[in-house]
Amino acid sequence: MKVLALRKIFDRSSKRRNRGWIGHVVFWLVLLVILIASDFSQVGWPLVLYQKVVDIIFYAVIIYINLLYLIPNFLSHKKFWTYVALLLLAVLVLTPIKIAIQVFLFTDAPSFQHYFIDNQSYFFMSMFLVGSSSTIYGILSDWFIHQSEKMELQTQTMQSELKFLRSQINPHFLFNTLNNLYALTLKKSDDAPEIVLKLSEMMRYMLYECNERRVPLQKEVAYMKNYLDLERLRQHESIDIHFNLTGEVSDQTIAPLLLIPFIENSFKHGLSSQINHGWVNIDMHVEGAKLRFTIENSKGPAQPKQVHRKAGGIGLVNVRRRLNLIYNDHYHLKISNEPNAYRVTLDLNL
Predict the structure, then answer these.
(1) Spatial distance between the Cα atoms of 350 and 343, rounded to a whole number of angstroms
(2) How many angstroms separate the CA atoms of 217 and 199, rounded?
(3) 184-193, long-range: CB within 8 Å, 24+ apart, which pairs?
(4) CA 284/CA 223 separation, integer angstroms
(5) Per-position DSSP letters for 143-192, written without gaps between them
Protein backbone atom coordinates (compact mmCIF):
# COMPACT_ATOMS: atom_id res chain seq x y z
CA MET A 1 0.00 0.00 0.00
CA LYS A 2 2.84 2.42 0.79
CA VAL A 3 4.39 1.75 -2.64
CA LEU A 4 1.12 2.64 -4.35
CA ALA A 5 0.77 5.74 -2.19
CA LEU A 6 4.31 6.87 -3.09
CA ARG A 7 3.61 6.29 -6.79
CA LYS A 8 0.52 8.50 -6.57
CA ILE A 9 2.51 11.17 -4.80
CA PHE A 10 5.23 11.11 -7.50
CA ASP A 11 2.57 11.40 -10.22
CA ARG A 12 1.06 14.38 -8.47
CA SER A 13 4.52 15.90 -8.00
CA SER A 14 5.16 15.56 -11.75
CA LYS A 15 1.90 17.37 -12.51
CA ARG A 16 2.81 20.08 -10.01
CA ARG A 17 6.21 20.54 -11.72
CA ASN A 18 4.52 20.92 -15.13
CA ARG A 19 2.21 23.55 -13.71
CA GLY A 20 5.25 25.11 -12.02
CA TRP A 21 7.04 25.78 -15.31
CA ILE A 22 4.02 27.65 -16.61
CA GLY A 23 4.02 29.70 -13.44
CA HIS A 24 7.72 30.51 -13.94
CA VAL A 25 7.13 31.77 -17.48
CA VAL A 26 4.26 33.97 -16.30
CA PHE A 27 6.44 35.26 -13.43
CA TRP A 28 9.28 36.32 -15.76
CA LEU A 29 6.91 38.00 -18.19
CA VAL A 30 5.26 39.95 -15.39
CA LEU A 31 8.66 40.92 -13.98
CA LEU A 32 9.76 42.10 -17.44
CA VAL A 33 6.72 44.35 -17.71
CA ILE A 34 7.37 45.76 -14.24
CA LEU A 35 11.03 46.48 -15.01
CA ILE A 36 10.15 48.24 -18.27
CA ALA A 37 7.40 50.28 -16.61
CA SER A 38 9.72 51.38 -13.78
CA ASP A 39 12.53 52.53 -16.11
CA PHE A 40 12.81 56.32 -16.29
CA SER A 41 15.85 56.61 -18.57
CA GLN A 42 15.64 58.87 -21.58
CA VAL A 43 16.64 56.28 -24.18
CA GLY A 44 14.09 54.92 -26.62
CA TRP A 45 11.83 52.04 -25.67
CA PRO A 46 13.56 49.47 -27.95
CA LEU A 47 16.83 49.88 -26.03
CA VAL A 48 14.98 49.73 -22.72
CA LEU A 49 13.29 46.54 -23.86
CA TYR A 50 16.62 44.99 -24.93
CA GLN A 51 18.27 45.98 -21.65
CA LYS A 52 15.48 44.54 -19.50
CA VAL A 53 15.31 41.35 -21.53
CA VAL A 54 19.05 40.89 -20.97
CA ASP A 55 18.53 41.51 -17.23
CA ILE A 56 15.74 38.97 -17.09
CA ILE A 57 17.76 36.37 -19.03
CA PHE A 58 20.77 36.61 -16.73
CA TYR A 59 18.64 36.70 -13.59
CA ALA A 60 16.91 33.55 -14.81
CA VAL A 61 20.25 31.87 -15.63
CA ILE A 62 21.74 32.46 -12.18
CA ILE A 63 18.49 31.44 -10.46
CA TYR A 64 18.07 28.18 -12.37
CA ILE A 65 21.76 27.29 -12.01
CA ASN A 66 21.22 27.76 -8.30
CA LEU A 67 17.89 25.90 -8.04
CA LEU A 68 18.59 23.05 -10.41
CA TYR A 69 22.28 22.37 -9.79
CA LEU A 70 23.91 24.12 -6.85
CA ILE A 71 21.23 23.59 -4.22
CA PRO A 72 20.46 19.89 -5.01
CA ASN A 73 24.12 18.89 -5.38
CA PHE A 74 25.83 20.92 -2.69
CA LEU A 75 23.56 22.77 -0.26
CA SER A 76 21.23 19.78 0.14
CA HIS A 77 24.27 17.63 0.96
CA LYS A 78 25.42 20.12 3.62
CA LYS A 79 28.39 21.34 1.56
CA PHE A 80 27.69 24.93 2.52
CA TRP A 81 31.04 26.57 1.78
CA THR A 82 31.41 24.75 -1.52
CA TYR A 83 27.92 25.93 -2.43
CA VAL A 84 28.73 29.57 -1.56
CA ALA A 85 32.01 29.44 -3.51
CA LEU A 86 30.33 28.02 -6.61
CA LEU A 87 27.52 30.58 -6.41
CA LEU A 88 30.09 33.40 -6.23
CA LEU A 89 31.99 31.85 -9.15
CA ALA A 90 28.82 31.68 -11.25
CA VAL A 91 28.11 35.34 -10.51
CA LEU A 92 31.72 36.30 -11.32
CA VAL A 93 31.46 34.57 -14.71
CA LEU A 94 27.98 35.81 -15.65
CA THR A 95 28.34 39.46 -14.60
CA PRO A 96 31.08 40.42 -17.14
CA ILE A 97 29.17 38.65 -19.91
CA LYS A 98 26.03 40.57 -19.02
CA ILE A 99 27.90 43.90 -18.95
CA ALA A 100 29.55 43.18 -22.30
CA ILE A 101 26.17 42.53 -23.91
CA GLN A 102 24.73 45.70 -22.40
CA VAL A 103 27.68 47.75 -23.68
CA PHE A 104 27.21 46.28 -27.13
CA LEU A 105 23.49 47.17 -27.12
CA PHE A 106 24.22 50.80 -26.17
CA THR A 107 26.79 51.62 -28.87
CA ASP A 108 24.75 54.72 -29.72
CA ALA A 109 24.66 55.89 -26.08
CA PRO A 110 28.24 56.22 -24.75
CA SER A 111 27.08 57.61 -21.41
CA PHE A 112 25.19 54.40 -20.70
CA GLN A 113 28.19 52.32 -21.77
CA HIS A 114 30.31 54.14 -19.19
CA TYR A 115 27.54 53.61 -16.63
CA PHE A 116 27.69 49.82 -17.08
CA ILE A 117 31.50 49.73 -17.00
CA ASP A 118 31.84 52.03 -13.97
CA ASN A 119 29.22 50.14 -11.90
CA GLN A 120 30.38 46.57 -12.34
CA SER A 121 30.44 46.00 -8.57
CA TYR A 122 26.77 47.08 -8.38
CA PHE A 123 25.77 44.63 -11.10
CA PHE A 124 27.81 41.93 -9.42
CA MET A 125 26.01 42.49 -6.09
CA SER A 126 22.60 42.61 -7.77
CA MET A 127 23.26 39.27 -9.48
CA PHE A 128 24.51 37.75 -6.23
CA LEU A 129 21.47 39.00 -4.28
CA VAL A 130 19.11 37.61 -6.92
CA GLY A 131 20.87 34.25 -6.75
CA SER A 132 20.83 34.27 -2.93
CA SER A 133 17.15 35.14 -2.81
CA SER A 134 16.42 32.13 -4.98
CA THR A 135 18.15 30.01 -2.31
CA ILE A 136 15.52 31.07 0.21
CA TYR A 137 12.79 30.30 -2.33
CA GLY A 138 14.29 26.88 -3.07
CA ILE A 139 14.57 25.93 0.60
CA LEU A 140 11.00 27.02 1.39
CA SER A 141 9.62 25.38 -1.75
CA ASP A 142 11.32 22.06 -0.98
CA TRP A 143 10.06 22.21 2.60
CA PHE A 144 6.44 22.80 1.57
CA ILE A 145 6.58 20.05 -1.06
CA HIS A 146 8.11 17.65 1.46
CA GLN A 147 5.41 18.48 4.02
CA SER A 148 2.66 18.06 1.42
CA GLU A 149 3.98 14.67 0.27
CA LYS A 150 4.44 13.61 3.90
CA MET A 151 0.82 14.48 4.68
CA GLU A 152 -0.41 12.64 1.58
CA LEU A 153 1.59 9.55 2.52
CA GLN A 154 0.29 9.69 6.10
CA THR A 155 -3.28 9.98 4.79
CA GLN A 156 -2.83 7.01 2.44
CA THR A 157 -1.23 4.97 5.23
CA MET A 158 -4.01 5.86 7.66
CA GLN A 159 -6.74 4.87 5.19
CA SER A 160 -5.11 1.52 4.44
CA GLU A 161 -4.60 0.90 8.15
CA LEU A 162 -8.24 1.70 8.89
CA LYS A 163 -9.35 -0.77 6.22
CA PHE A 164 -7.10 -3.38 7.75
CA LEU A 165 -8.50 -2.75 11.24
CA ARG A 166 -12.10 -3.00 9.99
CA SER A 167 -11.26 -6.25 8.21
CA GLN A 168 -10.12 -7.61 11.58
CA ILE A 169 -13.24 -6.43 13.42
CA ASN A 170 -15.91 -7.86 11.13
CA PRO A 171 -14.83 -11.54 11.27
CA HIS A 172 -14.34 -11.13 15.02
CA PHE A 173 -18.00 -10.26 15.62
CA LEU A 174 -19.25 -12.76 13.09
CA PHE A 175 -17.34 -15.55 14.84
CA ASN A 176 -18.81 -14.69 18.25
CA THR A 177 -22.36 -14.37 16.94
CA LEU A 178 -22.16 -17.71 15.15
CA ASN A 179 -21.05 -19.24 18.45
CA ASN A 180 -24.23 -17.87 20.02
CA LEU A 181 -26.36 -19.33 17.24
CA TYR A 182 -24.58 -22.68 17.51
CA ALA A 183 -25.30 -22.85 21.24
CA LEU A 184 -29.03 -22.21 20.66
CA THR A 185 -29.33 -24.77 17.87
CA LEU A 186 -27.76 -27.41 20.10
CA LYS A 187 -30.52 -26.71 22.62
CA LYS A 188 -33.13 -26.72 19.79
CA SER A 189 -34.25 -23.36 21.08
CA ASP A 190 -37.28 -21.60 19.56
CA ASP A 191 -35.20 -18.43 19.64
CA ALA A 192 -32.93 -19.69 16.85
CA PRO A 193 -35.01 -18.15 13.97
CA GLU A 194 -34.98 -14.77 15.71
CA ILE A 195 -31.24 -14.84 16.18
CA VAL A 196 -30.81 -15.73 12.49
CA LEU A 197 -32.88 -12.65 11.57
CA LYS A 198 -30.83 -10.42 13.88
CA LEU A 199 -27.64 -11.90 12.49
CA SER A 200 -28.85 -11.19 8.95
CA GLU A 201 -29.46 -7.52 9.80
CA MET A 202 -26.03 -7.26 11.43
CA MET A 203 -24.32 -8.87 8.45
CA ARG A 204 -26.08 -6.52 6.03
CA TYR A 205 -24.83 -3.56 8.05
CA MET A 206 -21.26 -4.87 8.27
CA LEU A 207 -20.97 -5.89 4.62
CA TYR A 208 -22.73 -3.06 2.82
CA GLU A 209 -22.82 -0.04 5.11
CA CYS A 210 -19.51 -0.10 7.01
CA ASN A 211 -17.22 0.61 4.08
CA GLU A 212 -17.33 4.35 4.63
CA ARG A 213 -15.17 6.23 7.08
CA ARG A 214 -18.32 7.55 8.77
CA VAL A 215 -21.79 6.04 9.09
CA PRO A 216 -25.01 7.53 10.47
CA LEU A 217 -25.10 7.29 14.24
CA GLN A 218 -28.69 6.00 14.02
CA LYS A 219 -27.52 2.91 12.12
CA GLU A 220 -24.69 2.30 14.57
CA VAL A 221 -27.20 2.46 17.45
CA ALA A 222 -29.51 0.03 15.62
CA TYR A 223 -26.60 -2.36 15.18
CA MET A 224 -25.80 -2.13 18.91
CA LYS A 225 -29.41 -2.86 19.81
CA ASN A 226 -29.40 -5.92 17.57
CA TYR A 227 -26.25 -7.12 19.28
CA LEU A 228 -27.82 -6.63 22.72
CA ASP A 229 -30.94 -8.49 21.59
CA LEU A 230 -28.74 -11.41 20.58
CA GLU A 231 -27.08 -11.37 23.99
CA ARG A 232 -30.46 -11.30 25.77
CA LEU A 233 -31.42 -14.41 23.83
CA ARG A 234 -28.18 -16.15 24.67
CA GLN A 235 -27.64 -15.11 28.30
CA HIS A 236 -29.35 -16.53 31.35
CA GLU A 237 -32.55 -14.76 32.45
CA SER A 238 -30.89 -13.54 35.66
CA ILE A 239 -28.40 -11.46 33.63
CA ASP A 240 -29.54 -7.82 33.62
CA ILE A 241 -28.87 -5.94 30.41
CA HIS A 242 -29.80 -2.25 30.27
CA PHE A 243 -29.30 0.17 27.41
CA ASN A 244 -30.26 3.80 28.04
CA LEU A 245 -30.09 6.31 25.19
CA THR A 246 -30.68 10.00 25.94
CA GLY A 247 -30.43 13.10 23.79
CA GLU A 248 -31.31 13.52 20.14
CA VAL A 249 -29.82 11.22 17.52
CA SER A 250 -30.38 12.89 14.16
CA ASP A 251 -27.79 13.49 11.45
CA GLN A 252 -24.63 12.76 13.45
CA THR A 253 -22.08 10.35 12.02
CA ILE A 254 -19.54 8.07 13.67
CA ALA A 255 -16.79 5.66 12.64
CA PRO A 256 -18.42 2.28 11.99
CA LEU A 257 -18.24 -0.48 14.61
CA LEU A 258 -16.41 1.80 17.02
CA LEU A 259 -18.44 1.14 20.18
CA ILE A 260 -19.28 -2.52 19.68
CA PRO A 261 -15.90 -3.84 20.93
CA PHE A 262 -16.60 -2.33 24.37
CA ILE A 263 -20.00 -4.05 24.51
CA GLU A 264 -18.64 -7.34 23.24
CA ASN A 265 -15.80 -7.20 25.74
CA SER A 266 -18.27 -6.75 28.61
CA PHE A 267 -20.24 -9.87 27.68
CA LYS A 268 -17.32 -12.05 26.72
CA HIS A 269 -15.14 -11.38 29.74
CA GLY A 270 -17.21 -9.54 32.32
CA LEU A 271 -19.97 -12.10 32.77
CA SER A 272 -18.09 -15.30 32.16
CA SER A 273 -17.07 -15.86 35.78
CA GLN A 274 -20.46 -15.13 37.41
CA ILE A 275 -23.00 -15.85 34.74
CA ASN A 276 -25.87 -16.36 37.19
CA HIS A 277 -25.82 -12.87 38.70
CA GLY A 278 -24.21 -10.62 36.15
CA TRP A 279 -25.22 -7.27 34.73
CA VAL A 280 -24.30 -4.88 31.96
CA ASN A 281 -25.37 -1.23 32.04
CA ILE A 282 -24.92 0.98 28.97
CA ASP A 283 -25.61 4.70 28.97
CA MET A 284 -25.31 6.73 25.81
CA HIS A 285 -25.92 10.47 25.80
CA VAL A 286 -25.88 12.55 22.62
CA GLU A 287 -25.91 16.32 22.66
CA GLY A 288 -25.26 17.90 19.29
CA ALA A 289 -21.83 16.72 18.15
CA LYS A 290 -20.88 15.49 21.63
CA LEU A 291 -21.30 11.85 22.59
CA ARG A 292 -20.69 10.22 25.95
CA PHE A 293 -20.71 6.44 25.98
CA THR A 294 -20.49 4.62 29.32
CA ILE A 295 -20.59 0.88 29.77
CA GLU A 296 -20.20 -0.92 33.09
CA ASN A 297 -20.37 -4.63 33.72
CA SER A 298 -20.10 -6.95 36.68
CA LYS A 299 -16.91 -8.86 37.20
CA GLY A 300 -16.04 -12.01 39.11
CA PRO A 301 -13.76 -11.90 42.13
CA ALA A 302 -10.95 -13.48 40.15
CA GLN A 303 -10.33 -14.13 36.47
CA PRO A 304 -7.61 -16.19 34.82
CA LYS A 305 -4.73 -14.07 33.52
CA GLN A 306 -5.14 -15.56 30.08
CA VAL A 307 -8.68 -14.22 29.87
CA HIS A 308 -7.43 -10.78 30.85
CA ARG A 309 -4.96 -10.83 27.98
CA LYS A 310 -7.69 -11.74 25.51
CA ALA A 311 -9.96 -9.01 26.90
CA GLY A 312 -7.54 -6.40 25.70
CA GLY A 313 -6.79 -8.23 22.48
CA ILE A 314 -8.15 -7.74 19.02
CA GLY A 315 -11.23 -5.76 20.13
CA LEU A 316 -9.96 -3.09 22.50
CA VAL A 317 -6.53 -2.76 20.91
CA ASN A 318 -8.15 -2.05 17.55
CA VAL A 319 -10.67 0.40 18.92
CA ARG A 320 -7.91 2.39 20.63
CA ARG A 321 -5.95 2.45 17.39
CA ARG A 322 -8.99 3.58 15.40
CA LEU A 323 -9.73 6.33 17.90
CA ASN A 324 -6.19 7.63 17.51
CA LEU A 325 -6.31 7.47 13.73
CA ILE A 326 -9.75 8.96 13.17
CA TYR A 327 -10.45 11.26 16.11
CA ASN A 328 -6.93 12.10 17.22
CA ASP A 329 -7.32 14.68 20.05
CA HIS A 330 -11.11 14.79 19.85
CA TYR A 331 -11.84 11.98 22.28
CA HIS A 332 -11.18 10.97 25.85
CA LEU A 333 -11.19 7.31 26.90
CA LYS A 334 -11.18 6.26 30.55
CA ILE A 335 -11.14 2.62 31.65
CA SER A 336 -11.65 1.69 35.30
CA ASN A 337 -10.91 -1.87 36.37
CA GLU A 338 -12.31 -2.27 39.88
CA PRO A 339 -12.52 -5.48 41.94
CA ASN A 340 -16.21 -6.13 41.18
CA ALA A 341 -16.89 -3.98 38.13
CA TYR A 342 -15.36 -2.89 34.87
CA ARG A 343 -16.24 0.57 33.48
CA VAL A 344 -15.44 2.29 30.20
CA THR A 345 -16.27 5.93 29.55
CA LEU A 346 -15.74 7.44 26.13
CA ASP A 347 -16.27 11.14 25.40
CA LEU A 348 -16.26 11.71 21.66
CA ASN A 349 -16.55 14.79 19.46
CA LEU A 350 -18.50 13.50 16.48
Answers:
(1) 21
(2) 19
(3) 184/233, 184/234, 189/233, 191/233
(4) 14
(5) HHHHHHHHHHHHHHHHHHHHHHHHHHHHHHHHHHHHHHHHHHHHTT-TTH
- What residues of the chain score a pLDDT lower than 70? 1-20, 36, 39-48, 109, 111-112, 154-174, 176-177, 180, 234-238, 269-276, 300-315
Query: What would the DSSP string read from start to end of 36-98?
Result: HHT---SS-HHHHHHHHHHHHHHHHHHHHHIIIIIIIIIITTT-HHHHHHHHHHHHHHHHHHH
Residues 6 or more apart whose CB falls under 8 angstroms from that of 20 comprise: none
Residue 166 CB partners (closer than 8 Å, separation 6+): 210, 256, 257
Domain definitions of the chain by residue range: 2-152, 190-349
What would the pLDDT profile of 76-96 be if each residue is shown by its tens digit?
788 888 888 888 888 888 888
Question: According to CATH, what is the number of the domain 190-349?
Answer: 3.30.565.10
Side-chain half-sphere CA neighbours of 202 within 13 A:
26
Do 292 and 350 meet the contact criterion of CB atoms below 8 Å apart? no
pTM (2 decimals)? Answer: 0.54
How far is it, in rounded angstroms, from Cα 302 to Cα 50?
92
H or E element in which residue 104 lies = helix 80-105
Angstrom CA distances, 81 to 10, 74, 85, 129, 175, stand at: 31, 9, 6, 17, 65
Look at residue 10 in the predicted model and tell me its pLDDT.
45
Cα–Cα distance for residue pair 267/240, rounded to 1 Å: 11
> Is there a contact between 340 and 318 (Cβ–Cβ < 8 Å)?
no
Rounded CA gap, 83 and 66, in Å?
9
Q: Is the dihedral of CA 17, 19, 22, 26 positive or negative?
A: negative
The long-range contacts involving 60-65, CB below 8 angstroms and separated by at least 24 positions, are 60/28, 61/94, 62/90, 62/91, 62/94, 62/127, 62/130, 62/131, 62/134, 63/130, 63/131, 63/134, 65/90, 65/131
